[in-house]
Amino acid sequence: MKAHDGMYIDGVWRPAAGQDVIEVVNPVDEQVIGTVPAGTAEDVDAAVRAARAALPDWAATPPAERAERLAALRDVLVTRADEIAETVTVELGSPLKFSQAVHAGVPIAVAGSYAELAATYAFEEKTGNSVVHHEPVGVVAAITPWNYPLHQIVAKVAPALAAGCTVVVKPAEDTPLVARLFADAVHEAGLPAGVFNLVTGLGPVAGQALAEHPGVDLVSFTGSTAVGRRIAAIAAGQVKKVALELGGKSANVILPSADLAKAVNVGVANVMSNSGQTCSAWTRMLVHRDQYDEAVRLAAEAAAKYGDRIGPVVNAKQQDRVRGYIEKGVAEGARLVAGGPEAPRETGYFVSPTVFADVTEDMTIAQEEIFGPVLSILKYEDEEDALRIANGTVYGLAGAVWAGDEAEAVAFARRMETGQVDINGGRFNPLAPFGGYKQSGVGRELGVHGLAEYLQTKSLQF
């Protein structure tokens, strides 16, 4: 059986319970490039049962052996890196170079980091007359998004496996093909049957069945805040643990002492990366009033260079959503200095790289997550005003601060209500915890803090 003809459950590809399929569309040319089965509650139940049956043995496997299996998985991902990048490019529309560097490269780094952590983490520690034992939370439901389709799978599966949990993954319906490749990689790496399972399907059907299944101990979800609330409500009914990585409206604060040109150019690049489909993107640029006009000019020039360099958004619905936000920005009085709502191509789900000036903090485009290549530039009066604006949304996922003096930037960053802040263009660190404040989520991913999400703590007194 070909992988896309079924589900990966209990170590084998098996027929789906139903006959319905999901078409996978290339957002560049709008052509169907494949199909996957639309999973049902019956498929989910089979996958959860397989994960439950595999849990005792995998949980009892020594951490050093789990580390070896994760290292083997990392090595398989390395050998399949080109295929992974090419697959993400056709199902997400990402430019190939970006797919190679990020969509294939980052998951390899994350898998490797958890192979090392599984071998070195202190699963037991002594405190006073007690031994504190960290054990796997159980069966994990990983419901993943389409914007970084493999990274988000690995960021959940790798720590869960390192902790000794077993997993059922339900990938986004727009980008399920790379999830299929990952299942093949798991199989090739020799993980025991049932430790990893894959069910493709629609969120309201397979996703909901997975979240509410009584055999699931933890639901790890990345996606919209609205769906996150729904999953949290389902989990609350069973007092089930959740880890939620949700929306963002991150502020890029440029203090007066910063290198303005560098801060603006890097900020625009951040927003345009992955066609703006990044929950942590710095979509609000905050600039002092004395530097505002120059920043707007620089941002408009920078955005114009991305017209032929970014891919489309993922589907027609997302294209309409982003263009609708651009139209809303114009209607509310923001000034377009680059891009606009008109589609730049007749075919494909493309959106023009767009920059708004004269944005006020009460505008829709300054408060709501757009998830497209759209930047809003806001003016502030002084540092306290900048902090108020930066913290003035329901989100708190990421952000950036630029200043001529690093200590000045750090002092500002410490007061931002957000889970991660880049200082003067700080580089991505796969070992640093990632997650949100406020309505951007609950819990953390990556590094030792990401591992801790999949562990239960038990105290033994002597």
TrEMBL record:
<dbReference type="InterPro" id="IPR015590">
    <property type="entry name" value="Aldehyde_DH_dom"/>
</dbReference>
<keyword id="KW-0560">Oxidoreductase</keyword>
<feature type="active site">
    <location>
        <position position="245"/>
    </location>
</feature>
<dbReference type="InterPro" id="IPR016162">
    <property type="entry name" value="Ald_DH_N"/>
</dbReference>
<comment type="similarity">
    <text>Belongs to the aldehyde dehydrogenase family.</text>
</comment>
<dbReference type="GO" id="GO:0016620">
    <property type="term" value="F:oxidoreductase activity, acting on the aldehyde or oxo group of donors, NAD or NADP as acceptor"/>
</dbReference>
<dbReference type="Pfam" id="PF00171">
    <property type="entry name" value="Aldedh"/>
</dbReference>
<feature type="domain" description="Aldehyde dehydrogenase">
    <location>
        <begin position="13"/>
        <end position="459"/>
    </location>
</feature>
<protein>
    <submittedName>
        <fullName>Aldehyde dehydrogenase</fullName>
    </submittedName>
</protein>
<dbReference type="InterPro" id="IPR016163">
    <property type="entry name" value="Ald_DH_C"/>
</dbReference>
<dbReference type="InterPro" id="IPR029510">
    <property type="entry name" value="Ald_DH_CS_GLU"/>
</dbReference>
<dbReference type="InterPro" id="IPR016161">
    <property type="entry name" value="Ald_DH/histidinol_DH"/>
</dbReference>
